[in-house]
Design a protein that fits this description.
0% strand, mainly alpha, 427 residues, single chain
Length: 427
Amino acid sequence: MWLSKLKNTNNWTWRCFCVSVLFLPLFPALGALGLVIVLGIIWRDNYEQIVHNDLNRAFGILAGLLIISSALAKYPQSAWLGLANFLPYFALFMALRCLITEPRQLRYLSWLLILPSLPIVLLGYGQLFLAWDTNPLIESIFGWQLIPLGVPTGRMSSVFIYTNFLAIYLAIAFTLTLGLWWSTWREKTTKLKAATLFSLLLLTLILFADISGLVLTSSRNAWGLAVFSFMAYALYLGWRWLVWGVTSAATAILWASFAPNLGGTQLRRVVPAFIWLRLSDQAYERPVETLRLTQWQFCWDLITERPIFGWGLRNFTPLYEAQMNLWLGHPHNLFLMFGAETGIISLLLFLAIIATIMFPVVKLCSTWSSQKSDLIVFSYLVAFIAYIFFNLTDVTVFDLRVNTIAWILLAAMSGVTNAKLSKPKIK
């Protein structure tokens, strides 16, 4: 059994982690409980290794700054609650980078992350086209509810509370599936096996499901990330024909959306209307208070007023409501929100930590001798960059599943690259 074949890994801990990841999207409470157990075991057995690591110490300093910011917050109660969106994930990151140290673990983990996307999209189809709902028993067991016709209406949200959370989840799953598909295709060219063909068929099915789900979320961010993923792989693999193909298609769509007076009208006969209407934002009328530019300017003003420790986590919402007379859950930019709520020092430290983790991953992808391994690592890199890009125009840390998956991606990359450099061992 493949779960028991990995070296330098506690079998029981690894299996518990894998089962937890598999359950997380569809059964978040059970998945989260399993991850808490894994976190506790790894911290118990590897406490000295964890606390004496420089990167982990940087996270500890960041945690201290967030606590100080919460103590000085305009609305302290909201700020203390907001710590739950960050501090537990710092601890999870520290633990998982000890557990995930081998490239083949990344491959198995990719499968676990993408498999739930297939039933999630199928449930989304039922939600949109059959007006599926969930009875109270299912909601109480699984912790989610299907809302007929989606949230907002007409956009697939499936088991998530809002379509944008589904969109980023599917964007990550789509990116990882592409990496597995191309890696498996390479195996097919050398060895033709029934298991390999089955994997290719299953991955192809998941790809089409994820693509269709992304389209039906009507998320412009997610559409752009799908194009970004295609382009990233095409450039990495040296497939110029795919680069030109995707570039041509994207250019035609953008032309139809934003330049109707320069030939775009003719292109609109080819490009589906729901795409160019959504991209050009002609499908909705938005008050100025709901525009992203308004939110971002408000965040910048908050930063200039309290640049050191900010206003406190989750304080954007009450501050914005008091100013604009409009309730808004977040400012649609994670980093502006983080700077406004926790201060410039915390933001810069957070960005420095992320950059410190990402740099050796980029270097590893460009120098690794095993093409099969580096393609999987590259898929994690692209998936996490996609997550970062998505959070430049949205905020996804408030969703347990999406936030957890993002930290798992980051910890997995860090663990493998750290093992490549120093080869740490978990007890």
